[in-house]
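User: hey, got a sec? need Regulatory protein RecX folded
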Amino acid sequence: MTCQTYFNLLLSRRDYSVKELEKKAQEKGFSLEEIAETIAHLQSLGYQSDRRLASTLIESGKGKYGKAALRRKCLSKGISSETFEQAWQEQPEPPDNLAETQDLQAKVERKYKITDWANLDPQTQTKVYRYLQYRGFNPTEVLAYWREEID
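Assistant: Yep! Here you go:
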């Protein structure tokens, strides 16, 4: 199996970053020169694009995760910060950046059985902060937005 065939097989299933392709090809025993040439060829044909992969990851994670968590996911796949920022800027921006958190708010309310955002007990508030922070959202801004929305 040639490097070209192997990459075509991989890319037929899903997008991979350059770093992921390099790692997989090295594990298969292909030479670094052959890997670099094949990746350049695939990019010239439009079969591989780190920016497209970053855009896909952002689209699939928007509303579930914040910018920081999505950046971490892209970095873990070997996508540079510059490529992530370009893909982030290309995404259509909702009128209000926090408006996309309505689904998230419903999930949090169900998970922690919250009925009144104005009177959260400290223990629940801490859990909600951690939940939001883990997903890359700024908990202070999101909670303030949700409290204002109710008032």
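Quick note: The mean pLDDT is 89. Let me know if you need anything else on Regulatory protein RecX.
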